[in-house]
Amino acid sequence: MVTKSSRKSAETTEPAGLAALAKLADVSYGSLEHELRATITALEGQALRFETVIENVSQGICFFDRDERLILSNRRYAEIYGLAPEQLRPGLTLSEIVERRAAAGTAALATDAYLAMAGSVNSGKGPRTWTAKLPDGRTIQIYTQSMPDGSWLATHEDVTDLTANRQIVDERISLQALIDWVPNYLWVKDTQSRFIVVNSALATDSGRDNTADMIGLTDFDIHPPEVARKFRQVEQSVLESGQPLIDAEEFVVNASGTVKWLSSTKVPLRNAQNEIFGLVGIARDITARKQAMSCAADRQTSWR
């Protein structure tokens, strides 16, 4: 039996309970709102860092959705194709972008042919890396990575100078088959002291099965740090001064542990604009001569 006092107590307790629930809801909402704002701030910070990185990449970058609409691109992508960044706003179709490149004189193919190429690449039927020759003579290397949802990311890199330098190397240094006949070490390096041409004698003594395994390596990959550092200093001096180094005596320890004395010549390479883009080196083994000289010196000392 419900009495007046119990009914009155319930009526008094009920509003208090609702007030407590309301207060708890307000606190929970405030906490969730704070967490949400913190999350949004963190995401905005990450997005800003991501955008900064994208804008400072030396390659042109573009990202398209499955409907071939631009999601984002960086300034370098616009520069490569002679466009203003505002001409590449998100939402444009690949077809519209190719037409703008055609208007700027930087389209490698007609619009339909380019779209067919892109479709072939994104379907997995075409190569993911290919080069495009622009009307102004530049060569652009394009790498495309498709995503599971049908979107894709592509990088565009101007490799004109690299291609031209390689052609110069091919003109000045004979075919690989020919240089492999040279018994002395023979190599070509770029301005960062990375090997771009190597003969079999040098590759073998460096512990590599193929000359191709040496491409892109530096002396730090095949010699102790102190030896590699000395070679780098000498080469940078040649590159900076433009003066060749002739018959300098150097020693190395090859991959089998054999100590060799070398007579090295390093000459800077220049392109058609007389700019230094690397150096060519040749080193002949003078170990036997050094040993003979050492023995002669020892005998002379013993006679005294």
UniProtKB/TrEMBL annotation:
Residues 46-88 form the PAS domain. It comes from the Bacteria. Residues 246-298 form the PAC domain. Pfam families: PAS_4 (PF08448), PAS_7 (PF12860). PANTHER family: BIOFILM ARCHITECTURE MAINTENANCE PROTEIN MBAA, DIGUANYLATE CYCLASE DGCP. This is PAS-domain containing protein.
